[in-house]
Structure formats: C-alpha cells, structure tokens
Design a protein that fits this description.
Layout: E1 2-9, H1 22-28, E2 29-31, H2 45-54, E3 60-68, H3 77-94, E4 99-104, H4 116-128, E5 133-138, H5 146-149, E6 154-157, H6 166-181, E7 187-193, H7 207-217, E8 223-229, E9 243-249, H8 252-269, H9 280-289, E10 295-299, H10 314-321, E11 327-333, H11 335-344, E12 349-354, E13 366-382, E14 388-399, E15 402-407, H12 417-420, E16 431-434, H13 441-444, E17 450-454
Parallel strand pairs: 1-3, 1-4, 4-5, 5-6, 10-16, 10-17, 11-15, 11-16
Antiparallel strand pairs: 2-3, 7-9, 8-9, 12-13, 13-14, 14-15
Helix pairs in contact: 2-6, 3-4
Length: 479
Amino acid sequence: MIIFSATLATETNTFGPLPTGLEAFKQRGFYPAGTHPDEMQFFAGPLWAARQRAKGRDWVLKEGLVAAAMPSGITTRHAYETLRDQILEDLRAAMPVDIVLLGLHGAMVADGYDDCEGDLIGRVREIVGKDVIIGVELDPHCHLTRAKTEVADIVVLYKEYPHTDVLDRAYELVDLCVAKFEKRINPAHAVFDCKQIAMMHTTRDPMRGFVDKIKAMEGRDGILSISIAHGFPWGDVPDMGTRVLVYTDANVEKAAELARELGQEIIGFRDRLNPGYPDVDEALDQGVAHGEYPVVLADSADNAGGGAPSDSTFVLRRVLERGMRKVAIGPLWDPVAVQICFEAGEGARLPLRIGGKVGPVSGDPVDATWTVHKLRANTFMTGLSDTKAPMGDSALIECDGVYVVINSNRTQAFGTDLFTQFGLDLAQMQIVVVKSSQHFYASYSKIAKKVIYVESPGTVTQDLKSLPFKKIRLPKWPF
C-alpha cells in the first residue's frame, strides 16, 4: 500500500488587514517534500499519524510539501497557486498511490478562490482518478463545502476546541482510509446545514456533553465518524456556517437522519453557547473584584489565530491608565520594538512605543518608559497537541508593574510558557491578559482562578453584525 501525504493550511479572516503571502508560510512552518522533521507539525497530523501507523507494516509513505501560515487576511493568488502546484507536482512524482492524506484547514481563502481546499482536493482527484482514496483532516472552524465532502472519500474534523485532539483525529482518518482500501468499510456520508454560525467551546456544556455523546456513538451501529463544522464566522464566503457531517457504513439514509438529528440538537442549544463578553473596563473590574488570582482575560478580538494583527493596545492602554499593577499581557506583535529591545539589551530602561502599528483595529501606539527584563532569540511556546508555536525573537518588558511579552513572529497565546520562559511567575500576577479566543484555555485553565472573555475592539470582533458581509448565504442565525 502506497500513501501520499501533504499539508497546506491557513485560516483566512476575509476582513483582516494583513495579506497572507509566501513569507507567512515560511515563517510559520514550511517543509518541502521529504524534509518534515521528526516531530509532528500542527496541521500535518495525517502525515505524522501515517508515519506512526506505517511502523512494522509494508506501507510506503511518500511525503509531499508541508506548509502552514498563521491565520491572517486573504491569501495572495501567487502564494496559493505556488504552494498548491508544488503539492500537485509532489503527488505526480509519487504516483501511483493508493491513498492520499491531506492536512488542511478548511477556511483558506485566496484572491480568486473562495474555497482553496475544495480546489486543491478537486485537482488531486483529477490526478489520481476515481479509485484512489482521498482522506482529509480539517479544523472545525472550516467552511464545509460540497467541493470538499463530495470529492474526498473521508473528511474528519477535530472535535475539541481548544484543538487538543489533532493527532487523535489524524489516526482516525488514517484508519478509516485504510479500512476503505482494504474493503472492510464502504463509507456513505451526509451533511446537515444548521443555517447558523456560533463559536462552540468544548470545555463546558452544552458542547462538552455533546462532543462526549457523538464520540460514544462512533464505532457502533454502523456509525463510522461524526464531525461538527463550527464554521469560521470571519470568513465572508457563501458556505460559511455550522454543519454536521456523518459517515456510516454503506447507509446514506441513516447518515442523513443522524446528521439532521444532531444538527437540530445544536440549533436547540445555540443560545447557550456564548460565555458572555464584558467590555474592557467591565472585564478588568470583574478581574480585580474576584479576590483570587490570577484571573485570565482573553482578548479575543486581537487573536492572531483568527487573523487579527495581535498588536492592539485597547486593553493595555486601560490597564496603564487605571494604574493597575501585577498585570501580564501577551503576546503583542511588534517586531520593531523587539529589535530596539535587543539593541538596548537586558536591564535597559528606555522610552518605547509599542503596538498599534497595523491600523484602526489595532488602536493607537502606547508610549511609555519600559524596562527590558529578558530577551530570547528565536523562541517557541508550547502549542496544542504537543506541537511548538514559533514566537521569533521576543522580549519581556515592564512599566510600573505591567509586564508585556512582545514578539516578532505573530502568534496567539497557547502555553503558559509564553510568560514563564522569561522568568515571570504568573502566580504573582493579579491579571493575565492573553491574545487568544480559546486555545489558551487548555493551558491557562490550570492556573486561572477565573477566566473572562473580553469584548474589545478588533479584527475578530464578536459583533458579527457589524462586519460588511457580502457573500454569505442568508438566512443564517444570528443574522
């Protein structure tokens, strides 16, 4: 059995101010065919899972390009077509193959392509023909289009948000594809459109119980796989929204019935999904008043993982104006300020302008006198599913008891080592502000006495009705 695997992944905020070019992929994760390192990369779960499953078996794994970029604005046509064509070239060189495994995101939009993954899967099918099995792993914050589900044989989405199950779902995908190749199963699928969009944190009910329920259903009564596409609210494409995808063994009617049943259940509890988003001052008030620390505030609207610049100053400015102490904030993307800190050196105290670089969604820059406490070159923090998130050159700076981690590689907050690798003891902080929507929770919930999701201004705003959508199909709750 010959397997080919490749990855092309980014999440596109079509309202984001920063275009996604080739350099964004080379900065986050770029491995030409055959150069994938000996550790899993976040969106290369299928490749890594196939490597592990192949051990001790007579499988041949041929590895193509692995390329992933931090979520941002629309991908340039040049970047998408260059990377797509390289994967297709790698596939042609690998032919003949029995199975193709693709690690994709599902919400990638490029200039001229509303559905990059659907385009790529379709071109893969043209190369391999109708009999080769195509398996695809997607992020649940995807646009689950027919171009994906009708052309691929099996599509599996992560179930957890935070995405702590990337490798588990990759193993599931590999096993299902191999079972189909060996004719042990004959997958039949159905999709139900919930005609809504909502963010679904799986760390609490109702989604916690719902995910546990669907996981218990898999592998029983002919049910092969159940995936929930949460959808990506900040992608203005026709198929944006929440959908349920069910695979059964050769029973499309059962798949359709179950997908509809589960979709109706999601519709029934959608009003309970929102955790509540106080504004900046109200969130700070709640944090201080809680009495047990640290309290973690999620600056969701400036989440680089949703395509935001990660350089907004709205929360930082209010913290300084209110004279707060024992506050940690990060990561704030400011390569210029980082470079200045490296020039000044550890221990330096200097006037520094930070943040507010990209545009109105970033707020105004903050001018203050900062002390450079710690510098780290080419550093990483712990990401999800035992992967590493590159931060680039980074610095811990402080002004009157307010500590900020500034970095040169735009990324969201994942692990607590975002701060602790600089020697900052989070147990001594009252407030910890993370630029992330939910992925931070896997790590920070272990140290937080309370978590507050903040409605600050920014690219990843929770006020979806304020965004100038033009392409999405209506009606779609909450519109």
